[in-house]
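Q: I have 890 residues here and want to know how they pack in 3D. Can you give me a structure?
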Amino acid sequence: MALTAGTRLGPYEILAPIGAGGMGQVWSARDSRLNRTVAIKVSAEQFSERFEREARNVAALNHPNICTLFDVGPDYLVMELVEGPTLAERIGAGPIPLEEALAIAHQIAEALEAAHEKGIVHRDLKPENVKLTSEGKVKVLDFGLAKAREPESAAGNPAMSPTLTISATRAGMILGTAGYMSPEQARGKVVDRRADIWAFGVVLYEMLCGRQLYSGELASDMLAAVILKEPDWEPLPANTPGRIRELLARCLRKDPKMRLRDIGDARITIEEYLAKPDGLEKTAAAPAAARRMRPWPAAAAVVLAVGLAGLSAIHFSEKAPEAAAVRFQIPAPEKAGYGNGIAVSPDGKRLAFVAIAEGRTMLWVRPLDSLAAQPLPGTDGAAFPFWSPDSRFIGFFGVGKLKKVEASGGPPQTLCDVPNTGIGGSWSRDGVIVFGTNSTGLFRVPQAGGAAAPVTTLDASRGESFQGRPWFLPDGRHFLYYVNSTTENSGIFLGTLDGKDRKRLVAARQGAVYAPLSGSGEKGHLLFLREGTLMAQPLDAGNFELAGDAFPVAEQVGSVISYPFISASANGVLVYRGGGAGGNTQLAWFDREGKPLGTVGPIGVYNDVALAPDGKRVAVRKAEPQSGNLDIWLLDVAHGVPTRFTFDPAQEAFPVWSPDSSRVVFSSNRDGAANLYQKGAGGTGSEEPLLKSNLEKRSYDWSGDGKYLLYSVSEPKTRSDLWVLPEPVGASGEQKPRPFLATPYNESQGQFSPGPAGTPRWIAYSSDESGRNEIYVQPFLETASAAAGKFQISSEGGLQPRWRRDGKEIYYIAPDGKLMAAEVKTGPQFEHGVPQALFQTRIFGGGAGLVNFRYSPAPDGKRFLIDNQAEETASAPITAVLHWTAGLKR
């Protein structure tokens, strides 16, 4: 019912709106029976019988510092009308002087003491629930109503632990409440009067400092800080006496067993100080007290580690009680979206993740007891991070490299070359790193770096196409890893560093992680995905046998290339991210100024964008949402209708069109190594082998005259090289390919220049010979003199070169994701201008982290088809669960 002045609720006549409360609108009203003005809180829902019962218990309270509850209606509460500002409004004007703050705190303590003596706990004490009258009287509002609003099944039920995603737009209620919750209340445990004592300490701290003790943009940030972060005592005024500092410290003990036992003790402490304020204590003793209460520099890490393991800060050697699970969500950094990979540190203190901001893909780190994440410089193009056992370093994949970087920052160190795309790594306690790729078995490398050595090989008889996502078990010798097979043999396997032992534990289409219960030799849990549902299954790390049935933990968890977005620490912290298969993109047209001109096809997980020469269709690599399997799809540019082009259960990628748009060449690992195949663009006919060997190959371009195919070969000694295959049409396997560039560096993404009658004279490509990827042009030896030399087009990094159809421009992607253009002349002599930025793209990885093409220019160079990061899926939050095994049957 909509209320207006004059509306009657029983004997009460509505006068005017006062404001909004936690339950709904608040109005002033006239009680016609007693001819007095009252306040009425109106709820949008009917009160339950339990709520009414609890409210009438609160109405029995009779104390001068407690706002009196007069009556309970079917959907409204009638209470004493208290004139004056709230304590929150008073604090908003700045810190409150010591004596005034203590006088207010004394009255709050008296109100709490009176309620506690009648068995009533406030549960929602905060400055917004404290009124200050003009006579200096303090009135505490809403006693016990938080309990009345609480679901009866919540107490002690891990499934009802807090999961807060409230945005800052509701900061008036939810964020304030989260900032005053006690640690046990934030964990969803049953609370008692000690929760009020905690909130009393938080309110007193805020009065003295003029700022919140725990603040943040999201309630989840506050809850994490309440549970994990020790109070910062530095903002307390220098004149805060030692007795009051000690009182605050005792109120704000995270372990309720170590907290102040009775609010009456706080009242007595304040009374004694106000009666005999010792001037010497307030001056000389205060600095000493401040020193005692500052976070302990040497012991803080130990205390916090114990706190994360037990979800409370244990100040003494007493064993912490088992806590309930706590879930909170971590949004992507501002103006950024999550990329491929998340990893919680083994000590459970920090989260490493990949994020894309303004086209740059970088590694970020966020302490779980902090509200801010920081990017790590030098990690452009990072993917699939993992931690060292001591939680000091983070390993990650760059373009063709495995690297490590200190979590606190510093220059990354290259450990080894990585063939093709790395898919997950794991770091043993003995300093061995094992990693996988999307086309090989597993490799190992020392933590100090060196040559990568094979650990496992692909079994062609079982249809295996790649192995990845390793995860060391506690003994440091055994590990989990994922095997992708073109048959039914895909699954999570157990392996060893010597490569001798191997067995499949679970049939699955993604990898897994291991979460120990408490230490090595005990049953932990295998965590894996089953059609997007996160499953947990007991695994005995002593005999490496499954020890129970799998059960669901979370729904709609994402993955990419069989890499699930899940991670677990050694002390009960679980993190996962939703948002489908990750990396969702949208094909869209843009003009040269970056103005959007329309989209092509639905949102999906696309890559390897190749526009047909006739401009009518676009070939893309598309990932299946759940399995991560890669196939080539064709989309009609005019209508955006996608059609599957390859059907083999292996991985297909790097599509290239023939000059007449009649055929498509692509790379496929269906026979083990990635080889080249071709198929008619009409979709009918067989997928014919074009070039096969035991080396990895990627197709990049087909010359305009149809005589040459340009591709790369990954060779152990010279890494990625560019090769040319003559006469690719009608291949019989007898062609003699030859190298174009074979150097100690990585050359890739080769593109033929347009020329007279389609005859190429030049090749543009990317190379890391300078230490980072840049764009170069060299003469194609068939049509130009080698004496012409080599030309460097980019100067500050670049990948993905493309030519304009008339050969007058070269485009590429800069490290920050900008689309660049350089004017060129491609006659017998080559000339080029200074590259100019056209516009900012939202390409995953920008120009620093990908060997695939994520855009394609229209023939006239006036439009560009960009494979942009999809806004709607990039910001799906990460969920962190502390003590995730709480409540499980063991």
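Q: Anything worth noting?
A: Residues 98-117 form the longest helix (20 residues). The chain is about 15% helix and 40% strand.
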